[in-house]
Amino acid sequence: MGDMYSKEIEVKTGGRAVVHDLTRDAEAFLAEADASDGLLHVFVPHATAGLAILETGAGSDDDLLAALDELLPRDNRWRHQHGSKGHGRDHVLPALVPPYASVPVLGGSPALGTWQSICLVDTNIDNPVRHVRFSYLAG
Question: Quick one: pLDDT at residue 1?
Fold first, then answer.
């Protein structure tokens, strides 16, 4: 393998659960990295956020948040208790939605399917600012 280029960006997610599309940020990062063929790795250095590759804008992002609310209710059942009600569920999220994703890069662009987007999944309403690290490893 060849060289690596890495950069961290800041994303404001606000005070509600969100699926935030990072695809354009990833494309801008790859252009800045002068990428050709290689691998894009995306990582969130947070204990309460994850990354998913999914379709957005057609309801799938809201469906994901609804499914997470069913799987991980925002109530007082959680042993990890601080912050807002049910915040312990946010600490379980990365076991289901991992804090990393890797995508092939071909010709300088992420080799995503037609309807795929790289998304930050943040259910933690207590932390309105997140960091995302993009790393490009040249082939």
Answer: 45
Residue labelled with tokens 């063929």: 37
Domain ranges of the chain: 4-138
Among 121, 89, 119, which residue's Cα sits nearest to residue 16? 121
Q: Give me the architecture of the 4-138 domain, per CATH.
A: Sandwich (2.60)
How many other CB atoms sit within 10 Å of the CB of residue 86?
18
Q: Is the pTM of this model over 0.90?
A: yes
- Give the contacts of 73 (CB within 8 A, at least 6 positions apart): 86, 89
Look up residue 64 and give its DSSP letter: H
Rounded to whole angstroms, how far apart are CA atoms 77 and 121? 22
